[in-house]
TrEMBL record:
Keyword Ribosomal protein: no
Compartment annotation: Membrane
The family this protein is said to belong to: Belongs to the multi antimicrobial extrusion (MATE) (TC 2.A.66.1) family.
Name of the protein in its database record: Protein DETOXIFICATION
Protein topology in the membrane: Multi-pass membrane protein
Coiled-coil segments on the chain, per record: none
Residue spans of biased composition, Polar residues class: 1-21
A GO cellular component annotation in the UniProt record: membrane
Ranges that cross the membrane: 49-73, 93-121, 142-165, 177-195, 207-227, 233-257, 277-297, 317-339, 360-378, 398-418, 430-454, 460-481
Chain residue ranges for the region called Disordered: 1-37
Length: 508
């Protein structure tokens, strides 16, 4: 087959996907272009694999690249606050760092609970039950807002909590004031993450990237003005960060309400969103536990390192490695978002082969990218530390930790993608149990034994935690390999059918 024939064949298969972007028409039913390729027995298996890969790669990167951009920009907002606070003074920097770290609790909680709407909206969209997406969006926002209420109490009393944790009194006072200025963000997160998943389920990701980019620019300009012109200091930084998140929420909300693209998925406020809140909360709780356990795992590594004998050198080198790992992790998180959308959409559309193919394709692509990153890191291991610091001892310590960092990057190229598959299928509660066992029953205890008992220091702690991540990755690989995708399609159909009977969705 010549190139022109091949291009025409793929273009014909993709035509419905192009039509779907037309906002003036009702979203057409998917004709299963990827599914039709994978099930076409008239094509040789290698040909089916090639054509399927061409279709899936375009869909995957169209979702993953904007998602990566969004997560990088959102992280940049927190980084910029620390930069501005650092120019105010060391105590202000410490207060902002503590405040942002404490606020990661509610960030992870809301992000995790928001992934529940990702499962349901993705499967509903794949099944062309478009009116359900708006109901799920409202239901998720209500649940997350209710969960945010006790969080406001927790952060209102952050000062005595920080004192009990042993933080200096002056820094605790400044950090508590800073956290108080961030409290409205709790409810901004509740709206933002559910709206973001609502958009992702429909493969609409680029507008969120534009909104996040505009919010970052707004934050930088306002923070500079408030500090240098108005002289509001640390509290001004907190207020601007809250305003920036408010800008993101308002922009996304207006986009969803006013854009004709969503006139079939957003039909206005409905009393039906108040039904089945407890069932929705249970799935959301499983999602929150899954995400929070993963986010806290690396934080515990830093805390344990602070207890070592030469903790200053260990913390400096480890913080540099964690910064590199965090940047690499953003790529995997982008593929996590993309594969959860692709898997849930295909399951909802009753395309088991496409769901399986999407899962493994995303895992393979993310692994290849992480392999390139790990090899580049090892090639520059003697120099990478100097990007962050001029101290030769710290740079040498970073070089010694680079093999551990390279292994972590490789695992992070697989594990988050498999977690995305779990979100697409609705396995959040199962993965939460796996995380508890692998991270907190195996990884951390083994790391403590190696680090403190066998005196391997930071290398020992990191080795144990790598072991926990490796165990979790192998379990998820095995579960994904053994998955009966036809059964997953039936489960997705059951969830949606039960909703149409006006009962609580079967979420487990």
């Amino acid at each position: 087959m010549d190139m022109s024939t091949e291009t025409a064949e793929i273009s014909t298969l993709r035509q419905p996907l192009v039509d779907q972007t037309n906002s003036e028409r009702k979203p057409p039913r998917d004709n299963g272009s990827l599914e039709s390729v994978l099930t076409d027995s008239s094509l040789p298996s290698r040909r089916r694999l090639y054509l399927g890969a061409c279709i899936e790669m375009k869909l995957l990167f169209r979702l993953a690249l904007p998602a990566i951009f969004v997560y990088l920009l959102n992280s940049g907002m927190n980084i910029s606050t620390r930069i501005f606070a650092g120019h105010l003074g060391s105590q202000e920097l410490a207060a902002a760092s503590i405040g942002n770290s404490c606020f990661n609790l509610v960030y992870g909680l809301m992000l995790g609970m928001g992934s529940a709407v990702e499962t349901l909206c993705g499967q509903a969209y794949g099944a062309h039950r478009y009116e359900m997406l708006g109901i799920y969006l409202q239901r998720a926002t209500i649940v997350l807002a209710l969960v945010g209420l006790p969080m406001t109490v927790l952060y209102t009393f952050s000062y005595p909590i920080l004192i009990l944790l042993g933080e200096p009194e002056t820094v605790s006072h400044m950090a508590s004031l800073y956290i108080g200025g961030l409290i409205p963000q709790i409810f901004a997160f509740a709206i933002n993450f559910t709206a973001q998943k609502f958009l992702q389920a429909q493969s609409v990701v680029t507008p969120s990237a534009y909104i996040s980019g505009a919010a970052l620019l707004l934050q930088i300009l306002l923070t500079w003005t408030i500090i240098n012109v108005m002289g509001l200091g640390l509290m001004g930084i907190a207020y601007v960060l809250t305003i920036s998140w408010g800008f993101i929420v308002m922009s996304q909300t207006l986009y969803i309400i006013t854009s004709p693209t969503f006139r079939h998925t957003w039909t206005g406020l409905s009393w039906r969103s108040l039904h089945g809140l407890w069932s929705f909360f249970k799935l959301s709780a499983g999602s929150a536990v899954m995400i929070c356990l993963e986010m806290w795992y690396s934080q515990i590594l830093v805390l344990l390192t602070g207890l070592l004998d030469d903790h200053a050198l260990s913390l400096d080198s480890l913080s540099i490695c964690m910064s590199i790992s965090a940047i690499s992790f953003m790529v995997s998180v982008g593929f996590n978002a993309a594969v959860s959308v692709r898997t849930s959409n295909e399951l909802g559309a009753e395309h088991p082969k496409s769901a399986m193919f999407s899962s493994w394709m995303a895992t393979f692509v993310s692994f290849v990218i992480s392999l390139v990153e790990a090899l580049a890191l090892m090639a520059s291991r003697d120099y990478v530390g100097y990007i962050f610091i001029s101290d030769s001892k710290v740079a040498e310590a970073v070089s010694e930790l680079c093999p551990f960092l390279a292994i972590t990057i490789l695992l992070n190229g697989i594990q988050p993608v498999l977690s995305g598959v779990a979100v697409g299928c609705g396995w959040q509660t199962f993965v939460a149990y796996v995380n508890i066992g692998c991270y907190y029953v195996v990884g951390i205890p083994v790391g403590c034994v190696l680090g403190f008992v066998f005196n391997m220091q930071a290398k020992g702690i990191w080795t144990g935690m790598i072991g926990g991540t490796l165990m979790q990755t192998l379990i998820l690989l095995y579960v994904t390999y053994r998955t009966d995708w036809d059964t997953e399609v039936k489960k997705a159909r059951t969830r949606l059918d039960i909703w149409e009977d006006k009962k609580d969705p079967l979420l487990n």
